[in-house]
Amino acid sequence: FSALNDEGVRYSYTGEWSGGLFNGFGKRVFDDDSIMVQEGNYKDGEFTPTPAQLFSALGTGEDGYAII
Questions:
Q1: Which letter does DSSP use for residue 45 in this model?
Q2: Whose C-alpha in 16, 18, 31, 57 is 20 to 30 A from the C-alpha of 37?
């Protein structure tokens, strides 16, 4: 799946779906390198990582900067 977020940045999502929303394990990658890769759990379309998934994702943005 590919779309634009609210700020107009293109992203792609691969992962599990339920009820037309991101649900389960997935990965969202943004075209803007300053935004971290969001890989982990999703619930009702929202990124809901476990602490381990969040710490793993930190630093995937440009200069280690993370926007969740």
A1: T
A2: 18
